[in-house]
Amino acid sequence: MDQLLLDIFQAYYDARCNKRNTLSQLAFELDFEHSLFELYEELKTRTYEIGQSICFIVSDPVKREVFASSFRDRVIHHLIYNYIYRLFDRHFIYDSYSCRLEKGTHYGIRRMDHFIRSCSQNYTRDCYILKLDIKGFFMSIDKEILKQQIAEKLNFWWEIACDKVRLLTLINQVIDHDPTQNYIFKGKNSDYDWLPKEKSLFHVWAGKWLPIGNLTSQLFANIYLDSLDKYIKYQLWCTYYGRYVDDFVIIHHDKEFLKSLIPQIKIFLQEKLQLILHPNKIYLQHYTKWVKFLGGYIKPRRIYIHRRTIGNFKTKMKHIWIIWSKAKQLNVINSYLWILRHGKNYIIRKKILQKISGFSFDIHFTYWTIHNGSLWTSSRL
After folding, report:
1. What is the model's pTM?
2. What does the alpha-carbon distance between residue 236 and residue 263 come to, in Å, rounded to a whole number?
3. CA distance 122 to 228
4. CA distance to 91, 94, 119, 132, 305, per residue, from 234 (Å)
5. pLDDT at residue 378 greater than cutoff 50
């Protein structure tokens, strides 16, 4: 069997993982074999075209415009990801946490805590934290620079197990695609109230932006900022540095040294990547003042989860008697308990869970299941 066809089937299984209850996926699965063979023929003959997107506005945690690709196109995104992820991943710096296997937000929080401990020699000397942010990152990515970065690397590597020309053509097609030309809007016109124009694809400059939410966009973001990572790490000699998408932190014992980095990073972003350092999101403080990073509050000797996450958890628990019998909602509760496990939140978990009347249980038990019509805890943290 053709290797490309096997790769498409693998991409399909990856794309449907944890997505089997969505309408787009269910419609595709009605005759998925026929649909996958169609994709195979289109890729072989280079007649593949990106389909219609769904546009909607999300408000939590901040207001954003999202263009969601159809499931058919998400299979292509996973196909690209499977081909190039490992090739690029091994060349990324260790402390890049976004969209990488065995890493993520919790890993990034733990690394920042480790950096603070190391730099301050276990809280025995001064240590300062510089946190920076890129203004309108996804809306400011230059497509030509990104395509050049990808092409240079792929042409240099020989390990790619597919046709390089076909792969580059497909990648460029995904990067150049404009979802505003073919989409369905789900919502109300009032959803756009208070959404800044610079955060909408309908008002960005031509040749800029990547759509938020696509798997490929997350990987392409890491590729785009890889040069920034290596510049800070190896040219500015910042040992304690980590980045998650466009949020990055540098830790050093010299406050003046950190101040001197700001204009250098600003110039590098403007000249090399056509990006702007956000002037209102520059944080520089002593480690004892703590730092908020990736949804966690990192303080000396302890980490707390963001208040917004705790508030969302409380809201879910208020309706526990309505939703407890629904396995999907039960999984949501367990997810919040798992998130809270990563910080010093024992008392918070205890208070929230004990507000449910009629239950008496050991707070160390956190995973809940349904047993004989009652809500039970089933395993320890």
Report:
1. 0.82
2. 12
3. 29
4. 14, 13, 18, 18, 32
5. no
